[in-house]
Model the fold of this input.
Amino acid sequence: MTAVKIPKNSGSADMTLLSNHPEKNVIRLQLKQNATLQALEAEDFAEFEQHLVITDGHKGDFLLMQGVRRMEQYFILDGILKRVVANNKGKEMILRFAAEGDMETSYAAWRLGNPTPYAIVCVTKARVARLPLPEWAAFIERRPALAKAFELSVMRGMSEIMAHTITLHLLDAPGRVTRFMRKHPELRDNIPQKELASYLNLSAETLSRLIHRGKV
Done:
């Protein structure tokens, strides 16, 4: 699959080494609260920091392009990202959303030697800590507890995408919206309605109508 065309604003994200970042102490605390990184031993954290670059992305910025082979690991500090796949005609499907405390990755594709099957895009203004996947893989291979926590996160994400795909086929529009609100109440008021409608395979008008009529 060829790489999706990069929008004009996709290269506007600001990147700074964690060690040089003016908010590095706050960022360190945020990283330690990340669900996956809680398995990282305290004495290993200093080494981990040396690999990290902090990116402040704007709404619509691409962190990862579909169809490329240079991949990174992302830990979300603030904001919301989406994983999205597009065909050659530009039609898109949102696979999942991920918010602060979560992570994003293309680890499976990298391990299989495949290009990225999807893009990772900022839904809102977002801040992430990132490092190249080869460096991340080498780091976790020496730390079994962290590797296990990471693998569970990867599998959880894959399971979430599969469940969502099944939902699109089996549930009607009110059912899809109700399920999302039940599973992800923390995202309800933070995802732009147009993005949420696309994720649920609805028009923005239908989603708005269901919400305002109290159908969810």
